[in-house]
């Protein structure tokens, strides 16, 4: 095999002009399968196509002269390679027996009595921002969001690997779920794996599974996330946190669509689509030597960068209205919306704020405002001070002397001691209730609760310890 044999086939990729996505090229290949006078055409948009007689192959050949796992066609850089998998009768390309070879368009691959014509073809389309202000569960009408919808329309139905980048709370999780929901894997599992939340010593077994007895404590054979997601999508959240020594193993899954359990010897085929998210800049991580370059290129077939909310201020009003209209928190006992509108000026003040916690923070602020609201309207007073009255905005004098604000209903015990004592008691009681409440809301999941609170998981655990609060996944967090 020499480079001279290589044919450049453009990968599924997005091209940018002046920083804007301009076109998308979708890579596909057609396999025309002929055997005993019967011809069948199959279209693949996968990076790896496994071929053989066994049921779990992408192309199953009912031919007794074909091995169970006969060969594999896969994308390498910009080209397609074929690799024989130690088949009994061999793999032939244009009648020459090969172990590995680059594939040119229209070559004929022979496996036993079956002939397969290989025909790569690419579809190149312009990215035109959609006219819609939502795609699936994703809300937003900023041009950058509508460009993302246009890309999603094209790539969601394929098997292309996607990496979603964006600050915390920009909607990476929502986008990943939407991609799965719009794909042909929709009926299959959607498995989330948070690379930053699982203790380092458990990551490998969680991802790839283990055989019984492979390490102390491995009492049962266990499937990993990739096996469990077979037929569906694996969402690798916080990808930038994945340890360097595990990265080659992930690369192997991507290249060969196979996993090996810890302590296992035989590779197990997995049919999964991979979507990953990170709030780190992966290119910087590669430069800093914390992320492998080969894995980076393998993963970033399609790279989506979600803009922070402060860069799409017009979406703040749209999202705020959406949360008010559809938030589960805004329902009375009969299921009717309790709070129906924003007082004049409230939405303007919301869109002037910078939203460091992005859409998640906005969602939380609306939820809080609804719970504070005493009428059918969200008033400025229901919004946190730093948002309602940013520095430089003169306060309405009337509101400072407003005697109609009811005095807080303190119990006598709460007023005992000095101001400092009372404040400490109050803070402690708030912290305890808040941490316990948030854990309950997140079904005992510490990582999720800490993320929602936007505080470090270790600090969250420290507070749990301080107040004697336990959670169901407490014993998993052994890495501190
Ligand atoms: N564009 C959007 N439209 C509607 N809801 C959104 C959007 N973006 C985020 N949200 C909501 O904001 C919250 C946080 O979103 P999500 O968990 O997807 O963020 P994330 O980027 O994955 O955050 P993190 O990096 O912290 O994991 C969720 O409640 C989600 O439903």
Automatic annotation (TrEMBL):
Pfam families, per database record: AAA_lid_14, FHA, Sigma54_activat
Taxonomic superkingdom: Bacteria
Gene Ontology MF annotations: ATP binding; DNA binding; lyase activity
InterPro entries, per the entry: AAA+_ATPase (IPR003593), AAA_lid_NorR (IPR058031), FHA_dom (IPR000253), Homeodomain-like_sf (IPR009057), P-loop_NTPase (IPR027417), Sigma_54_int (IPR002078), Sigma_54_int_dom_ATP-bd_1 (IPR025662), Sigma_54_int_dom_ATP-bd_2 (IPR025943)
UniProt keywords, alphabetically: ATP-binding, DNA-binding, Lyase, Nucleotide-binding, Transcription, Transcription regulation
Classification via PROSITE patterns: FHA_DOMAIN, SIGMA54_INTERACT_1, SIGMA54_INTERACT_2, SIGMA54_INTERACT_3, SIGMA54_INTERACT_4
Keyword Glycoprotein: no
SMART domains listed in its UniProt record: AAA (SM00382), FHA (SM00240)
Ranges for domain FHA: 49-98
Residue span, Sigma-54 factor interaction domain: 138-371
PANTHER family, alphabetized: C4-DICARBOXYLATE TRANSPORT TRANSCRIPTIONAL REGULATORY PROTEIN DCTD, TRANSCRIPTIONAL REGULATORY PROTEIN
Name of the protein in question: Formate hydrogenlyase transcriptional activator
Organism of provenance: Sandaracinus amylolyticus
